[in-house]
Amino acid sequence: MTKEAILQKIQDILTAEFELESEAITPEAKLYEDLELDSIDAIDLLVKMKEFIPGKIDPESFKKARTVQDVVDVIYPLVQES
Question: Class of 3-80 per CATH?
Answer without folding.
Answer: mainly alpha
